[in-house]
């Protein structure tokens, strides 16, 4: 990478990082604590699109702030939590969801852990039964080297 | 001149690595002692040359030699000395050099301290280790050379990313690399054993200290990173399930599994092929982590500036070592039959369950981390997998792990009486439930997370104590005996208790965190969670390479002054980046965390205040876990020649 392209990348990084404000600002907070609580909950599950891996609640980016305000706007207008999330997903795609849906191929993601755990348990029980029924007394076998050394020692 | 010598030393090290990767391997195969003996001096030479190269780069940073491209991009003459030095590894090229420095250090240690290894095994271990360093020397020299000069040196540098100018983060990468790279020893031992075709108790005893050391370093490295995130990012988050964090967490989980399965190999000569597989995978996850950080395929908060060429190179390294090792494993694993016999209820089987839980948990993290990539490639869906997924999918395995741990760790070897152990644990169950009930009663929010976390934590800590106490026998002076117990016993109890403490910290912080965001005028008091705060002043302070806006916040309780906090907002003019420096009043049961934000149009300042219950327990627990690992490492059984020791052990009943 040349120095110039590095500089360009750094400048780009600055643009996206340049914080206008730090996360939720006092002027964003809704006066109704119940609504605000819901807004925070929703924000924690939405990804800041220009950041690398942050939710909009923690993000410093201008775009995250816009999204936070949008979420609050919808809530004030009486949307349910699901309606707000759907509204955001309609506009930005499922990329915005930090918790992926369970639809379609994503089933694989959600079930991967439990399925793997079941397979592992199944194998482990088989293994353990084998171990507990195995014959005792398979004595350590010496390698040729060790046999040689043993013979040498015994000869002395 | 020094720079060129450093560059030259690096090239020489590369050449030595070629020799060390080939000659001892042939020697071990043909039983040529002269060829095998090449490995030891070569390993030492490789380390010394790499160290010289690293020293040369450090010299360039310390003296701010702006004719070096890397120094220009990552340093500045006004930067404090600590960060000039940490700037060496605060970038891609320098951190790769640190990576191989540690790799060659481990290789040299194996040469220096491996006196009791059979000569062929030792030669093979060192050859495999050298093959790894060879690959990374090539990577550095051909794609990421830190010693490139600039034709027109500028007057000053562009400064290190200010977020990295922090004591916690200065030492985070070296510890992390010591851990990542330490796992290469387990890998080299596993591959060497596969080539030898022999895995026995002695092998497990040689591998365990290396794995343990790597795990201890990883624990410290991860804890440092998480602690840094907590105080530096401005809102007290400690874990984000970011791809790069996951990249360090997966090897940690697998290394923890490996530590435990190696015990079974050592005691019972069973689980051999599984242990070998874990040793290969543990280092595989380290390499995957390196790939994730440096290729940029997954967007993450702390990836280095990266380009695809490097990613492809690392992918080749990964494919070569994993492909090679796993092929060898497939060919040879069946030859390693288990010897020991044990019941379904026994310590051995408890360790098998430990391995299942840790390995599946690592798999969940792995799958979740790579899922966005797979979904895009195979299903054409662009999606994210973030913290909410991992919290849901990962936590259950840890809950089960915590619940089973005290029981499993007290079962006796070979054939255990589960009922008796369960009976002895009844008081602990009562204690743990009492703690949880108390937490439930006094908490203001009705969440289950906090009480459950406290329950598990109390259960694990008291279980560790009971386990240790149980080792002192039945009568006589048990206290005196307690302090004469082997280091491994203490290590086990301390590490398990540390995990319990971390559980408590995580649950407490996540369940009972309190937050307050407001505009505060100077002199105006406000309150949160029973504490009173007054922003008494806001000052402009000039730092060495930054300008700071420092708030002075008086903290009090019931009208009594407790302390003064100084939250800062810094601007680094050279890097043109602001950072927040939260002011934290650390306490045993809670942290008070104050952040100052921007001045408001109508006067006053945005101030964010948090009460973080039990926050310090997270890192205290991690450090205690690492300490447990150190106790175990200090156990003299690791230091005594394993072969000689084994003969003496015959006739002594299994623990």
UniProtKB/TrEMBL annotation, chain A:
Domain CcmH/CycL/Ccl2/NrfF N-terminal stretches: 12-154
Regions annotated as coiled coil: none
Superkingdom of origin: Bacteria
GO biological process: cytochrome complex assembly
One Gene Ontology MF term: metal ion binding
Residue spans crossing the bilayer: 107-128
Keyword annotations from UniProtKB, A to Z: Cytochrome c-type biogenesis, Heme, Iron, Membrane, Metal-binding, Signal, Transmembrane, Transmembrane helix
Leader peptide range in chain numbering: 1-23
An example Gene Ontology CC term for this record: plasma membrane
Pfam families linked to this entry: CcmH (PF03918)
Function comment: Possible subunit of a heme lyase.
Entry's family note: Belongs to the CcmH/CycL/Ccl2/NrfF family.
PANTHER family for the chain: CYTOCHROME C-TYPE BIOGENESIS PROTEIN CCMH
Name of the protein in its database record: Cytochrome c-type biogenesis protein
Species per Swiss-Prot/TrEMBL record: Donghicola tyrosinivorans
Upper lineage: Bacteria, Pseudomonadati, Pseudomonadota, Alphaproteobacteria, Rhodobacterales
UniProtKB/TrEMBL annotation, chain B:
GO CC terms of this entry: plasma membrane
Domain Cytochrome c-type biogenesis protein CcmF C-terminal: from-to ranges: 315-636
Ranges annotated as spanning the membrane: 6-26, 38-62, 96-113, 125-144, 175-195, 207-229, 249-265, 274-293, 313-331, 352-373, 393-413, 425-442, 448-469, 490-512, 614-634
Domain Cytochrome c assembly protein stretches: 89-295
Membrane topology designation: Multi-pass membrane protein
One GO BP annotation of this record: cytochrome complex assembly
Entry keyword set: Cell inner membrane, Cell membrane, Cytochrome c-type biogenesis, Membrane, Transmembrane, Transmembrane helix
Compartments where found: Cell inner membrane
One annotated GO molecular function: heme binding
Predominant cellular place of this UniProt entry's protein: membrane
Top-level lineage group: Bacteria
Homology family: Belongs to the CcmF/CycK/Ccl1/NrfE/CcsA family.
Function summary: Required for the biogenesis of c-type cytochromes. Possible subunit of a heme lyase.
Name the UniProt record assigns to this protein: Cytochrome c-type biogenesis protein CcmF
Source species of the chain: Donghicola tyrosinivorans
Origin organism lineage: Bacteria, Pseudomonadati, Pseudomonadota, Alphaproteobacteria, Rhodobacterales
